[in-house]
Amino acid sequence: MNVAIVGLGKIGVPLAVQFASKGARVAGYDVSAKRVDEINSRHNPISGEPGLDEAISGLVANGALRATTDPCDAVAAGDVVVLIVPVDIDEKQRPDFAMLDAAVAAVAPHLRRGVLVLVETTVPVGTTRHHVGGQIAAATGMTAGADFSLAFSPERVSSGSVLRDLQTYPKIVGGIDQHSGELAATFYRSMLGAEITLVRDAETAEFTKLIETTYRDVNIALANEFARIADGVGVDALQAIAAANTQPYSHIHAPGPGVGGHCIPVYPHFLGAPELPQSLVVDTGLILEARRINDGMAQYAASRLAATFAADAEIAANRSPSSALTDRQRPLAGTTVLILGLAYRAGVKESRHSSALALASALRDAGARVLVDDPLYSDTEIAAHGLEPAPALPFACDAIVVQAWHEQYRTLDFASFRGLRAILDPRAALDPTAIRKVGINYVGVGR
Predict the structure, then answer these.
(1) For residue 127, what is the DSSP state?
(2) Quick count: other Cβ atoms within 10 Å of Cβ 63?
(3) For residues 107 and 5, what is the distance between their CA atoms, to the nearest angstrom?
């Protein structure tokens, strides 16, 4: 079986490896010549993904896997073509189909009659049938369902464990017609070790993925509301949530400085923008409010740090009122704040929608000089995000923000940072008692 993977990103490469390891002849297509060359040179272009290094080397060597920048070369002989190109949101939180549209436009003219096209990219409801199917039909003159099969099957994996997740999580499949759905289900049964769940149609499968990601976003927003309430009444939200979750029907997530990554901050917006003709406009007020709460947590966390510095300024003012006036009005002005972690979560080199960006913005607005450290990123990569790379740790700074608690940080001696007055720990990664014991203010979110 010939399989083409369109998009050799963090999910596309593991998919190519998975299918090739099951006996398919896999051709990966990507516009990045660098990435294509890396794969063809038997190198893994995706860092931090267990199992890829050895697998890619062997699969390329035996001819089961190859990569190309030529869309015709990739898909012309394909029995199955998998689209896994990101759909993000634009500055107005609307779906941005630019990359997916470009990929479909590139490969569609070269699709052969009888091909099975699978969309794994998370998309608004109706995209597979109307948006992708319409593009292919317009480019080829073929009819979806008659001349080519078309189905949606969302990726449900996490960076850092993709190959494991492909073997573990049930695979949701829905076709634009019964034949497409059954064909897709048969393909995945031959390629994966996981359970295959065939739902009624592509729209149901698309909706399923949006439901599961939005559930997590709303749940985190609820946890963040609990954290803010806990801060106001002086209790530990984490202890309370853990206790509440001993009740079998309570599954509250953890609060934090926001929600990052390419999934949860993006996909809830898709529910309000279906691709179905004549769709009803549905009020998604609860979902949008959850997005607002989570997007506002970086500002809230920064305000918690500012309040700590303001309290110190009040103490100083009692000693010398005139000298502490500026500090009380804008307590973070002139301070140096170190953010630990550009990545959106620990151990994963992925910065899309990372809370580090929002935290840096909020702290800069408050007058702080913000430096960013992340052992997974070079200084050049940090600077490319519009952030100032930190010098080698430790160094003199006024505050530290724990944004992604990478394994490499676990041996940090915070007492070795000269002038360090406070640590903001919105991830609840540290022991507050240990931090306070060395004379540093501990600032939590919900703790």
Answers:
(1) I
(2) 9
(3) 11
Residue 161 and residue 244: Cα distance in Å, rounded?
29
Contacts of 321 (CB under 8 A, 6+ apart): none
Q: Is the dihedral of CA 61, 189, 103, 178 positive or negative?
A: positive
Distance of alpha carbon 356 from alpha carbon 344, whole angstroms: 7
* Burial of 131 from C-beta contacts in 10 A (0-12 / 13-18 / 19+): buried
Cα distance between residue 15 and residue 9, in whole Å:
10
Q: Token match 């996490």: residue?
A: 158
322 pLDDT band (50/70/90 cuts)?
very low
Active-site residue set: 209, 263
pLDDT tens sequence across 174-230: 999 999 999 999 999 999 989 999 999 999 999 999 999 999 999 999 999 999 999
- Closest Cα to residue 99, out of 111, 90, 109, 87? 87
Query: 0.70 cut: is pTM over it?
Result: yes
Query: Under a CB-based contact definition with an 8 Å cutoff, are residues 28 and 65 in contact?
Result: yes
Neighbouring residues of 45: CB distance < 8 A, sequence distance ≥ 6: 8, 13, 34, 35, 38, 39
The phi and psi torsions of 340 (rounded to 5 degrees) equal -90, 110
Beta strand pairing call for 65-68 and 80-83: unpaired
For residues 16 and 37, what is the distance between their CA atoms, to the nearest angstrom?
15
> How does DSSP assign 339-365, residue by residue?
EE-SSSSTT----TT-HHHHHHHHHHH
Q: Which token pair is 7? A: 């998009």
In this structure, the dihedral spanned by the alpha carbons of residues 24, 29, 30 and 35, taken in order and rounded to 10 degrees, is 50
- Bridge partners (DSSP) of residue 172 are 197
Buried b (16+ CB within 10 A) or exposed e, 192-204: bebebebbebbbe
